[in-house]
Amino acid sequence: MGDMLDRELYGGIEAGGTKFICALASQPPHLDYEVTFQTSDPVETLSRVQAFFQPFIDEGRVKSIGIAAFGPVDVDPSSLTYGYITATPKLAWVNTNILGKLHQSLGVPLAFHADVSGSAIGEYTWGAARGIDPSLYLTIGTGIGGSFLLHGEPHAGMTALETGHIRIPHNLQQDAFAGACPYHQDCFEGLAAGPALAARFGARGELLADEDPFWQIEAEYIAYALVNYILILSPRIIVLGGGIMQRSFLFDIIRRRVRELLNGYIQAEKILEDIEHYIVPPALGRYSGVLGAIAMAQRLD
Ligand code: ZN
Predict the structure, then answer these.
(1) Is the peptide bond before 72 cis (omega within 30 degrees of 0)?
(2) HEC string for 268-295
(3) How far does residue 62's CA lie from ligand 1's centre (Å)?
(4) CA of 63 to the centre of ligand 1 (A)
(5) Are 187 and 181 within 8 A, CB to CB?
(6) Got the DSSP string for 158-187?
(7) How much distance in Å is there from the Cα of 278 to the middle of ligand 1?
(8) What is the pLDDT of residues 238-290, one digit of tens each?
(9) Least packed by Cβ within 10 Å: which of 135, 175, 235, 292?
(10) CA of 94 to the centre of ligand 1 (A)
(11) What is the distance between the alpha carbons of residues 277 and 67, in angstroms, rounded to a whole number?
């Protein structure tokens, strides 16, 4: 008796803009304990995080905790605002030092990345991109973001990657919508993310029927973006998550369009003969992010 009670635990926090998932695992990807709650203001939300972890920390069982946070976040360790949520549209969270606050309240070693990098690391460690290097994870939902992992580490340079804001051809014949990005109007995110669908159709994009011809245009926009990432980053696998990719019929249209757009130029077997294993959905479902955060915590060992 008590065997499980004595085990050391790694923690993960998926700090999302709409919900937080906190979890503890002794042998991930199996989770020993988990809780999910809605994101409210920073004080209330972070006190719920602490309430979940504190009993286990008091027992001395928590080795480290990873945080995968909504953003934009500052992930440059040399920056004065490292660990901050910065210019988010969620005003209560603007300039919140989430890493510093959690470090103060939890007092265990913490790892920190953007939420999309957490999902990428989760899928690379235990999911659809397991052991495949380099890999690209993209989320297409309320926003569009991505994380490119080289040797399992998210690429960042001057800033993190901004995969949602690249320019792609705008199909003006069939899609006269001006675009929804406040910075670039018809960039990829401005044309293809959830708010762009909502702005086009009045109702939420998720009410659009699967048969609606717009999905062909949506898939084309995604395919254009993927072709650019393939040509520039050359990932060995692309994982597409996020709310819009719940429409699983999009995968086949995207794969076909990617192959057509590349037109035989990239002579990779993955693309020519095995594209259904090249452009894939996540394997960890709603747990990609929190499991990635746990993997980040393990890497601190
Ligand atoms: Zn933009």
Answers:
(1) yes
(2) CHHHHCCHHHCEECCCCHHHHHHHHHHH
(3) 40
(4) 39
(5) yes
(6) SSB--GGG------TTT------BTTTBSS
(7) 26
(8) 999 999 999 999 999 999 999 999 999 999 999 989 999 999 999 999 999 99
(9) 175
(10) 20
(11) 29
